[in-house]
Amino acid sequence: MLLIGDDWAEDHHDVEIQDETGRKLAAAKLPEGVAGVAKLHELVARHGGDGLEAADVVVGIETDRGPWVQALIAAGYRVYAINPRQVARFKERYASSGAKSDKGDAHALADMVRIDRDQLRPVAGDSEQAQAVKVVARAHQSLIWERTRTFQRLRNTLREYFPAALNAYADLTLTSTDALELLIKAPTPAAAAKLTRPQITAPLTRARRHNRAQKAATIQAALREEHLGLPEPVTTAYAAATVAHAKLLIAMNEQIAELEGQVKEHFLAHPDAEIYLSMPGIGEITGARVLAEFGDDPTRYASAKARKNYAGTSPITRASGKSHVVAARFVRNNRLADALQTHAFSALNTSPGARRYYDKQRAREAGYNSALRQVGNRLVGVLHGCLKTRTLYNEATAWSHHTQSHPA
Questions:
Q1: Dist CA 226 CA 196 (whole Å)
Q2: In terms of Cα–Cα distance, which of 21, 124, 102, 109 is closest to 58?
Q3: Which of 49, 60, 225, 357 is the most buried (most CB within 10 A)?
Q4: 299 — pLDDT class (breaks 50, 70, 90)
């Protein structure tokens, strides 16, 4: 068996190869790309001998994606993606100085897959369809998060020089394209006060708003109210920032809509989509996000508990002496946690069993987030069972252990 520590950078990889006893066989700095992978295979062949199987090559690396990782998996190597924080803590065995080097990280990674391999998680063997869903689902969610940040910047800018716009476009929401078009057309209080009804109605018509005449009249009246102002040069500078943010938001709206179509297309093409969509409270976007983060490797989660632990919905126990504390998990996959919270919240309105379970937790004086997290934890277990048995969600089966029987 060969143990390889791979400390990757943007343009190269520092690797160390050890045997099963921890003896250092080789160390090298390999270029990124095909040439680097070829040189790594040469090192493996040189030090492994003719009888070495691909599965006997174990690689520790601080990432689980990218062409390099996929090339290692395709070669048949066993690849372990290790959290950088785990590597940092592991290195404290050698010294507490906090010293760092690429060669030192490669050595620590090789040691970790040699000593603690049973405690590490191998890179999941997700299908190509699942990887495609993950790419578009993450990109879509990241753009939505970035749009929220840009909106907050826009809102803060308007509060500083043109707060009347916040009131005028409140019914449209500032992230909508029609409100942003009006801001671009009239980014200053003086210009906005001169907008005519037809000028305001035009973007509302393109956005297919209802009651356009009434909305246009309300917006015009709000923009023409008296308000405190700033000197003209300052107002002009603020207006330039507002237009920049507004144009960014319009572009983001377009790309989010484009990516949403891609997310749905890739998700619906996956064989597990029907099972995910049978779950209460899961639509195509939420289902795609959950599938993307869980993956579809059937061997990745040995049990429902393992899936719950990865999801971060199951509690953790801290026990020491007479102290015994049960707390929520905060070190978790935030993308998955966000999707599962959305799933659990929506399930309260579509699943009687989920609603009863939530009400039961609340009756025990559990807080809103705690009760919702417990509903999500239960739904993750149900999803695991459905995926394992290849069956669709069944309301009666899912909540059979939590149904209270009332005497006649």
A1: 17
A2: 109
A3: 60
A4: confident
> HEC states along 176-243?
CHHHHHHHHHCCCHHHHHCCCHHHHHHHHHHCCCCCHHHHHHHHHHHHCCCCCCCCHHHHHHHHHHHH
Residue 405 has pLDDT above 60, yes or no: no
Closest CA relative to residue 57, chosen from 34, 70, 73:
73
Which candidate, 341, 393, 395, 390, places its Cα nearest to that of 368?
341
**Residue boundaries of the structural domains of the chain:** 2-123, 132-265, 274-402
Helix, coil or strand: residue 51: coil
For residue 257, give Cα distances in angstroms to 146, 253, 254, 263, 334: 14, 6, 5, 10, 23
Q: Give the dihedral sign, CA 191/192/193/196.
A: positive
| Nearest to 259, CA basis, from 147, 339, 124, 338 | 147
In sequence order, what are the residues at sequence separation of 6 or more whose Cβ sits closer than 8 angstroms to the Cβ of residue 401? none
**Paired residues of 122 in beta bridges:** 80
Find out whether 289 and 141 touch, Cβ atoms under 8 Å.
Answer: yes
Which are the contacts of 97, defined by CB distance < 8 A and separation ≥ 6?
none
What distance in Å separates the CA atoms of residue 5 and residue 109, rounded to the nearest whole number?
Answer: 4
Asked whether residue 402 carries a pLDDT value surpassing 80, the answer given is no
Q: What is the pLDDT of residues 237-253, one digit of tens each?
A: 999 999 999 999 999 99
CA–CA dist 250, 55 (Å, integer): 50
At the fourth CATH level, the homologous superfamily of domain 2-123 is Ribonuclease H-like superfamily/Ribonuclease H (3.30.420.10)
Query: DSSP letters of 324-377?
Result: EEEE---SS-HHHHHHHHHHHHHHHHH-HHHHHHHHHHHHTT--HHHHHHHHHH
Nearest residue to 343 via CA among 264, 286, 385, 271: 286
Calpha distance 367→359 (Å, rounded):
11
CA separation for the pair 9, 66 (Å, rounded):
12
What is the distance, to the nearest Å, from the Cα of residue 332 to the centroid of all Cα atoms in its chain? Answer: 11
User: What is the rounded distance in angstroms from the CA atom of residue 63 to the CA atom of residue 71?
Assistant: 13
Instruction: Reduce the DSSP state of residue 310 to 3 states and report it.
Output: helix
Distance between CA 159 and CA 262 in Å, rounded? 36
Per residue in 41-64, pLDDT (tens digit) is: 999 999 987 788 998 999 999 988
Q: Report the alpha-carbon distance of residue 27 to residue 312 in Å, rounded.
A: 37
